[in-house]
Amino acid sequence: MSRSSVIARRVAAASVSLVLASGAAACAGPKDNDTKGGGGKPAEGGTLTVLNRDPQTDFDPARLYTSGGGNVPSLVFRTLTTRNREDGAKGAEVVPDLATDLGKPSKNATVWTYTLKKGLKYEDGTPITSADVKYGIERSFAAELSGGAPYLRDWLIGGDKYQGPYKDKSGKGLASIETPDERTIVFHLNKPEGEFPYLATQTQFAPVPKSKDKGTKYEEHPLSSGPYKVVKNENDGERLRLERNPHWSAETDEERKAYPDVIDVRSGLDSSVINQRLSASQGADAAAVTTDTNLGPAELAKVAGDKELASHVGTGHFGYTNYLAFNPKVKPFDDPKVRQAISYAVDRSSVVNAAGGSSLAEPATTYLPNQKSFGYTKYDHFPAGASGNPKKARELLKKAGHKNGLTITLTHSNAKDFETSPEIATAIQDALKKAGITVKLQGLEENDYSDKIHSAKDEPGLFLSRWGADWPSGGPFLAPIFDGRQIVEDGANFNTGFLNDKSVNDEIDEINKLTDLDAAAARWGALDKRIGEKALTVPLFHPVYKRLYGKDVKNVVISDWTGVLDVSQVAVK
C-alpha cells in the first residue's frame, strides 16, 4: 500500500481498498440514474445510522490520515479548505472552509496566507482563532500523536526537526507558522508548493485550543468546529454518537448540509451483515449508509435483479490505480524489453473479472487515474488489447535473449481484497503463460507482504501494488512513486522502480511551483505519459465503488474526490 493507501484503509476501509472510501477514480463520476436518493426534498431531523466494518479509530485530528478531511471526521473537524461537496468531477475541486479563500500565495508559492471567516465558534461557544489552527498543526508533530499525512513535516521550514508542543521548551512553536492576528495565519515553506490548498483539507489543519488539549486523550472528546459534536466514543471509535453542535453556523459553512439531528456510527460489523441490513432497510436501517463497505460480485448480481434495490446503490470512482510493479534491480526485470513484453502479455479482461467484473473495476493503461483533476492523458504505450498480445510479447522476449521463454516469480498478498490477492495474481499467471512466461506465485500474509514490497533491500522483482490519492491531483500520485529523491533505503520506500531521473525530478519541481491547478494538471498528465514509456509499472485497473444505502436516505452526493456517499449531505427525513 502507500501513504495514500493508508488513507484508503482508514477513510474507507473496506473492500476494494479504500477503497477509500475516499475514493473515486474514473472520468465520469457517479453513474446512478438517481444520485439524489429516495423521493422527496431533504429536510432536517432524524437519525442517520452509519454501518461500517472498521472502527473510526484515533478520532483526533492530529492522528487521522484522510483525503479531503475524511467522511465522518469532516462532520466534527473543519479545516482551512475542504473538498467541494458536489457530484462527480465538480466534487474534485478544493474550496474554502474555515478560511475566506484558498489562500494567497507569494514568494513563488513558498508563502501561503489565510484569513479566517468571521463568527467561527467551537461547540462551547468560544471563538476559533488562527492560534488554534497553528496549535492544531503543531501537535500533529508529537510522536504520540503521529499517523496523519506527512507533508507538513516535509514542507514547513523547520518541520523536519520540530517534535511538537509537548517537547517545545520555548513555547513558541514552529516559527514557520505565523499568526499576526486572531484571523490571519501564514505558512512559510522550504520549497514551492502550488497545491498547498489541497493539503489544507487534511484534519491536521483543524483548530485545537491549547487550553483544551488532553494529549492522547483528546480523541475521547475533541472540541468540534463542525456541525456535529462527539457525545459518545466507545471502544476506540467502534461506536460514535454525534449530535448537533449548537454553535455551528451554516452561514460560515457552505459545504456541509447537516440535515440529521444525530449521526450514529456503528462499526466492527461483517461486510455481509452490513449489506444484508442495508438491503432489508428495516427499522433504523432504512435511514442507514456505509462509508467503507462495497457490494461484492455475488451481491451485485442480486441487486441487478431487483429494481427497487438497484435504486439504492451509489456508484463512484476514486483516484486509485492497481498495477504490476517491477524492480529493475532484479533480473530479468533490469531489461526494459522484458518489462515491455510483460506489459504486452497482460490480459486486462481477465484481471477485471478477477477484481469482481466490469461493475467493480475499469481497465487501466495509464498510471494516473482517468479523471480530469489528475491531468489524465490517454496513452497506451504497449497496446495489449482487451485480452493481451502474447505474439508481441514473444517477439520482445526473443530480442531480449529468451527465445524459449522464461520463468519469473510474482509476489502477492493472501488477503482477499480483489486487488493484490491470489485471484488477480492467477489471472496474470494465466495470461503470461500464453506468451511463454512461466509465473510462480509467492503469496504472503498481508503484514509480511507490505513489509517486503516497501523494503528497498527486500523488494521482489515483480509484485502486485496499488496507490491511492491523498488529493485529486497528479502530484501526490506521481511524486512518491517516481521522484528519485523520495527513495528510502532504510524505511518504507514507495518508489518501487527506483527511478531517479533528473529530468523527471526537475519537472516535478517545476509543476509544484504552479498555483494554476488546471495548468498543473496538464503537466502532470504529460509527465505520466513520459514516465509510462519506461515500463516500470503495468497499470491494471481502477476500482469502482458500489455501495448500498437505506431506502429513506435522501440527497445522495458522490464526488470524484472520495467516490463514496458524502455523509455531510445526507438527509433522512
Automatic annotation (TrEMBL):
Give UniProt keywords alphabetically: Signal
Q: Where is the Solute-binding protein family domain?
A: 93-485
Leader peptide range in chain numbering: 1-28
Cite the PROSITE patterns for this sequence: PROKAR_LIPOPROTEIN
Instruction: Write down the Pfam families for this protein, in alphabetical order.
Output: SBP_bac_5
Give the start-end ranges of region Disordered. 26-54, 207-231
Basic and acidic residues: bias regions: 210-222
- Decide whether keyword Signal is in the record: yes
InterPro entries named in the record: Peptide/Ni-bd (IPR030678), SBP_5 (IPR039424), SBP_5_dom (IPR000914)
Signal in keyword set = yes
Q: Quote the protein name from its UniProt record.
A: ABC transporter substrate-binding protein
